[in-house]
Amino acid sequence: MIKKEAITGLILAGGRAQRMGGIDKGLISFQGKPLIDCAITRLKEQVGPIMINANRNITKYSVYGYAVIADETPDFAGPLAGFLAGLKAAQTPYLLTSPCDSPLLPIDLAQMLAVELEKTNAQLVYASTKSANGRHWAQPVFCLMRSDLADSLRTFLSKGDLKIDHWFTELRTSTVVFENEDAFANVNTPEELHALENAAK
């Protein structure tokens, strides 16, 4: 059984947030608290160390007392760049990733993914959801991976490809389907923020 102390939690807050007008999404208020605060609250009981991947407002994120790590490249290269920064910095055998803009993320995310990773001997396990019509949707930024994947990811990114699902095809992967689709709802626009706040009341 993978213990939570063996997992580093990485909160991804390094994006441009263009659809939010360029505002740093992790610092946007959700029900009176910054989104990053919500993510930390949901993750801190599931993992050992926590790191925040951010490319701006480093001082504001540092206030939370966790390591803040930036992408290797300064061009906001997307989640995989955050993954790589996390893999390089992690001191535990496993890395759990989650975006900063999903304030309702499952409180059993790490446990469910860890069980699947051990059962299948996968290198990486990601979350999926099932919609009302029964269709499965991948939630690839919510994943648990072995921390020895840094070289694989660095080689993949050196080809200029930034798509998560393309990297996954090079690995032994599996997925866990979570029943509560709303737990993975994220905030990309002001309208989505208001809708999620109302739904979470």
Outline the structure in words.
- The chain is an alpha/beta fold and 201 residues long.
- The chain has a single domain, classed as Spore Coat Polysaccharide Biosynthesis Protein SpsA, Chain A (Alpha-Beta Complex).
- Helices cover 30% and strands 24% of the residues.
- The protein has 7 helices and 9 strands, in the order E-E-E-H-E-H-E-H-E-H-E-E-H-H-E-H.
- The chain has helices spanning 35-43, 58-62, 79-89, 109-120, 150-158, 164-168, 190-199, and strands at residues 7-13, 29-30, 33-34, 50-54, 67-69, 94-99, 124-130, 136-146, 173-178.
- The strands form 2 sheets. A 7-stranded mixed beta sheet has the order 5-4-1-6-8-7-9, sandwiched between helices. Strands 2-3 form a two-stranded antiparallel sheet.
- Its cofactor is Mg(2+).
- Transfers a GMP moiety from GTP to Mo-molybdopterin (Mo-MPT) cofactor (Moco or molybdenum cofactor) to form Mo-molybdopterin guanine dinucleotide (Mo-MGD) cofactor.
- Monomer.
CATH homologous superfamily label: Spore Coat Polysaccharide Biosynthesis Protein SpsA, Chain A
Globally, the shape reads: globular
Q: Indicate the low-confidence ranges by residue numbers.
A: none
SS summary, helix count: 7
Provide the CATH architecture.
Alpha-Beta Complex
- Percent strand equals 15-25%
**Order of helices and strands, N to C?**
EEEHEHEHEHEEHHEH
**What is the CATH topology?**
Spore Coat Polysaccharide Biosynthesis Protein SpsA, Chain A
**Overall mean confidence score, pLDDT:** 91
Could you describe the largest sheet, including whether it forms a barrel?
Answer: 7 strands, mixed
Determine the oligomeric state from the structure: single chain
Please tally the β strands and state the result. 9
Helix fraction by DSSP (H/I, runs of at least 4)? 25-40%
Give the neighbour order of strands across the main sheet.
Answer: 5-4-1-6-8-7-9
Terminal Cα span:
35 Å
The domain count comes to 1
Main location: cytoplasm
GO molecular function: GTP binding; metal ion binding; molybdenum cofactor guanylyltransferase activity
Function: Transfers a GMP moiety from GTP to Mo-molybdopterin (Mo-MPT) cofactor (Moco or molybdenum cofactor) to form Mo-molybdopterin guanine dinucleotide (Mo-MGD) cofactor.
Pfam families: NTP_transf_3 (PF12804)
